Amino acid sequence: MKKNISLITLIICLFSGILSGQDFDSTRLNNILKSLKLDKTKIKEELCTEKKMPNTEDSYIAVIPAVVQQENDDYVFTVRNYILITDANGTIKNKYLDPTEINSDAISLRSFTIDTGLYTIGTNIRAFGVKADFVGSSRPNPYDLSTMSMYYPEGKTFKKVLDQFTMDLYSGEWDTRCNGEFEDNHSYIILEQSKTNNFTDLKIKTISVTTINKEVKGECESKETSKTSYKILKFKNSYYH
Question: What keywords appear on the UniProt entry (predicted)?
Answer without folding.
Answer: Signal
